[in-house]
């Protein structure tokens, strides 16, 4: 038996479908949405849900993660295959956070909301999903009108920008509930940045890689190498909620007030990461990243590594000067602040090892079929849209090997996976085809 709230309207109404095997949960949702001017439908299991969707178009689906016969993640994956334009939300408890993040990485879920949910947050999420589906339908109908299509895409991008503050609140909530999930937290934080349209996830990957390479050259501890690499990946975390012109305009072209606002982004980092004490070293690295060499002299060399890695790629991407610079030009610019903002020995290390910023296309990894339990991932694996699938340092288990092979099958790709060698520990390259 299904519950429904019918709306009498002159045009086809927007529709949301809630799926949960507990009738009490469905009745609670019915009370929350009973006054909304769109159609609200309910199903107690996957079979009922698919039956309803076969009869009418559903704009937003909200499913519980844990259900008998078919889990919420599996159901939403199936819905994504049959009805790719339907916006998909999963309600998840603390115990399901890891499986939920994996489902997000596989691209089957648009958003997840923790239980117990906040009614206002749930309503906003559903209506944002409806608006996104509605805009997509409008764009499709205007494919032959290029000018109008671009106009619609601009509207869509502006609306996505307005969700940044909400995304920050979701980050804090997820952090509080997941303090013991260290690697999952780091992955989730980076993926929040990666799905923000105005943030360059590819540049963040390069900053993290260069910072890790420098730390590796200096023979820092395994923990220090990990921390500075993650700090590089997350160094723009404080930009969430700031106007995008502050970090998409070359720094030299910003006004004095804008420069101060850009540098003060670090206060947002402290706020976001405050519920996660195990990330405080990474929080410190990011929060201190814009201080001068004298100001960070007692904080260790990792802060200095992050500053050089960050600004190398900001110069390369035209985010400091109004043009993109090559390797030699960047070295010249960095040398102008030698001993003031950048450590002299680190700059010399960068000059002597240009390969640290070059892609190593000649190195090969192993296939997922060759993976064995206990192997250590030497280089992070990212999806084509820059989401972090597995972080470097991951120790493969039977389950994670199975999941990675399933990921390859779902994405129809074959990975070359960089793992630490038992004899020489030479890194190998992770690529996708």
Describe this structure in words.
There is one protein chain. The chain is an alpha/beta fold. It contains 18 helices and ten strands. A hairpin with a 5-residue loop joins β7 and β8. The longest helix has 23 residues, at 119-141. The two termini are 47 Å apart. Residues 5-11, 175-181 and 422-433 have low confidence and may be disordered.
Task: Write a brief caption for the model.
This protein has 433 residues and is an alpha/beta fold. The protein is built from 18 helices and ten strands.
Oligomeric status of the shown chains?
A: single chain
In helices, the fraction of residues equals: 40-55%
| Unreliable runs | 5-11, 175-181, 422-433
Termini distance?
47 Å
The count of β-strands is: 10
Structural class of the secondary structure composition?
alpha/beta
Helix/strand order: EEHEHEHEHEHHHHHHHHHHHHHEEHEE
Count the DSSP helices. 18
Radius of gyration: 24 Å
Average pLDDT level? 80
Described by the principal axes of the CA atoms, the overall outline is: globular
The biggest sheet amounts to:
6 strands, mixed
Proportion of β residues? 5-15%
Strand order of the largest sheet: 1-3-2-4-5-6
């Amino acid at each position: 038996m299904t519950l429904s709230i019918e709306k009498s309207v002159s045009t086809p109404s927007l529709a949301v479908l809630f799926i949960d095997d507990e009738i009490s949960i469905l009745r609670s949702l019915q009370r929350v949405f009973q006054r909304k001017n769109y159609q609200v439908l309910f199903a107690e299991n996957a079979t009922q849900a698919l039956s309803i969707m076969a009869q009418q178009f559903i704009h937003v689906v909200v499913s519980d993660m844990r259900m008998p016969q078919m889990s919420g993640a599996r159901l939403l994956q199936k819905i994504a295959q049959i009805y790719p334009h339907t916006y998909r939300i999963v309600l998840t408890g603390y115990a399901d956070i890891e499986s939920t993040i994996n489902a997000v990485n596989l691209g089957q879920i648009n958003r997840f909301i923790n239980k117990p949910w906040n009614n206002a947050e749930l309503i906003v999420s559903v209506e944002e999903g409806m608006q996104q589906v509605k805009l997509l339908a409008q764009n499709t109908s205007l494919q032959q009108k290029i000018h109008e299509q671009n106009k619609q895409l601009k509207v869509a991008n502006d609306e996505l920008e307005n969700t940044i503050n909400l995304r920050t609140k979701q980050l804090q909530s997820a952090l509080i509930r997941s303090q013991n999930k260290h690697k999952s937290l780091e992955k989730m934080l980076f993926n929040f940045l990666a799905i923000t349209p105005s943030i360059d996830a590819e540049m963040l990957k390069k900053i993290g890689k260069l910072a890790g390479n420098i730390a590796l050259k200096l023979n820092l501890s395994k923990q220090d190498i990990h921390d500075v690499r993650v700090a590089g990946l997350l160094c723009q975390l404080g930009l969430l909620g700031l106007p995008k012109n502050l970090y998409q305009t070359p720094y030299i072209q910003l006004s004095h007030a804008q420069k101060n606002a850009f540098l003060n982004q670090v206060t947002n980092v402290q706020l976001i990461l405050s519920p996660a004490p195990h990330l405080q070293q990474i929080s410190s690295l990011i929060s201190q990243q814009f201080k001068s060499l004298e100001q960070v002299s007692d904080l260790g060399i990792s802060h200095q590594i992050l500053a050089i890695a960050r600004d190398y790629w900001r110069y390369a991407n035209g985010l400091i000067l109004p043009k993109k610079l090559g390797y030699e030009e960047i070295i010249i610019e960095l040398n102008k602040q030698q001993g003031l903002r950048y450590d002299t020995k680190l700059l010399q290390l960068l000059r002597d090892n240009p390969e640290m910023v070059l892609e190593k296309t000649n190195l090969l990894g192993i296939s997922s079929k060759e993976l064995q339990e206990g192997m250590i991932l030497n280089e992070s694996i990212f999806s084509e849209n820059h989401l972090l699938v597995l972080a470097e340092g991951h120790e493969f288990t039977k389950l994670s090997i199975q999941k990675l092979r399933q990921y390859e099958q779902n994405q129809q790709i074959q990975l070359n996976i960089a793992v630490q060698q038992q004899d020489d520990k030479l890194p190998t390259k992770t690529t996708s085809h």
